[in-house]
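Entry 14. Ran structure prediction on the chain below.
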Amino acid sequence: MHVLPAFYGYYKKQANDQKEAKETTLAHLKCVEQLLNEKKFLSGESFGLLDLAFGWLADNSRPLEVVSGLKLLDEDSFPNLCIWRDNFLKIPAINETWPDQETLIVKFQKSKESVRK
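Output, structure tokens:
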């Protein structure tokens, strides 16, 4: 699965390219949703390496949605993935060491502005 390149590509592209990137991203996210299959974490009931590998998705999805105005992860389409995201961000080691959501929003806003220049 190439979730990361598809996900970021969706936010970077415009018009028709964005529509195609969105379809690709949604297809990849459906695969991750199916992997969860109502489990608490991708690795099962406890946090594991696979969850850490997909941690960027939990950490970056909401800030990217705020900055771009584009929403991919909604509770209706991806209920398991949204629950996983919330569980992931509640892990003390993640919560205490990864940047908070507001910091990421500012970072992505600056990044978006620099691309426009």
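Residues 62 and 101 are 8 Å apart (CA to CA). Will compare against last week's run tomorrow.
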